[in-house]
Amino acid sequence: MSTTEQRVAVVTGGARGIGAATAVRLAAEGRAVAVIDLDEAACKDTVEKITAAGGKAVAVGADVSDEAQVEAAVARIVAELGAPTILVNNAGVLRDNLLFKMSVSDWDTVLNVHLRGSFLMTKAVQKHMVDAGFGRVVNLSSSSALGNRGQANYSAAKAGLQGFTKTLAIELGKFGITANAVAPGFIATEMTKATADRVGMGFEDFKKAAAGAIPVQRVGEPEDIANAIAFFTGEAAGFVSGQVLYVAGGPLD
Ligand SMILES: NC(=O)c1ccc[n+]([C@@H]2O[C@H](COP(=O)([O-])OP(=O)(O)OC[C@H]3O[C@@H](n4cnc5c(N)ncnc54)[C@H](O)[C@@H]3O)[C@@H](O)[C@H]2O)c1
């Protein structure tokens, strides 16, 4: 790649929350960004924010758990922006319930979006990274990978992504590709707002209660996660691979 060429980044689940903040941040770092989400129209705000700041972005509608849609999305990105060499597997859903009440469909949905989706996206994008001799993969894990009541499906998926990340690092390292996981704690987004709704709490009270248990005494913002992702996707992070970084306002184990 010549120094004037722009690297192409793909951010899944980029319509809102952590994905939107990450897309905006990577564009500010000079990347051309493909913003993928279920509904192409929902990506409009993120794309407009990027282009208004002088950046380059396209909105792409795709369900990351659907193989044909993933392949079509990546082909479109190659045609419209160029070959992607940065991938952030961020798309996610919750279907929380205690194990004895968790339906098979709630299990399958969560495993499909997080794990199958990250597998399909990485498989489709890695060939472009191999061709370029450069790649950066960041997978969104979670503090829930350590176990969390009501999240048997989600914690299994997020722990699974850590194993997936380490294996990518081992297999793809020789092609100049790194793979790392960012594991957020409590971040204020629609996802945590939905959890507050489910437990019957106002979002402000819910955030205040969460902040009290976090060493830095605040909940995280999407930009806190985007900052960590920007580091892992940067040119300078080529010797950092197979790592899991908890970004949670304090230590977790
Ligand atoms: N918010 C938190 O506290 C928190 C904590 C730890 C990990 N995470 C993880 O960070 C990521 C982003 O979370 P968020 O809080 O911004 O969530 P969010 O619900 O605000 O946004 C998730 C986005 O993913 C999209 N999406 C869902 N299924 C999809 C699919 N099949 N294909 C394409 N797009 C799809 C949604 O439409 C949405 O725009 C998720 O992987 C989540 O599990 C979040």
UniProtKB/TrEMBL annotation:
UniProt key word Nucleus: no
Ketoreductase domain span: 7-185
GO molecular function terms attached to this record: 3-oxoacyl-[acyl-carrier-protein] reductase (NADPH) activity
Any one GO biological process: monocarboxylic acid metabolic process
Entry-linked SMART domains: PKS_KR
Cited InterPro entries: KR_dom, NAD(P)-bd_dom_sf, Sc_DH/Rdtase_CS, SDR, SDR_fam
EC number assigned by the record: 1.1.1.100
Domain of life: Bacteria
SUPFAM superfamilies to which the protein is assigned, alphabetical: NAD(P)-binding Rossmann-fold domains
Record keywords, A-Z: NADP, Oxidoreductase
Enzyme class: oxidoreductase
NCBIfam families associated with the record: PRK12826.1-2
Record family assignment: Belongs to the short-chain dehydrogenases/reductases (SDR) family.
Protein name as it appears in the record: 3-oxoacyl-[acyl-carrier protein] reductase
Species this chain originates from: Streptomyces murinus
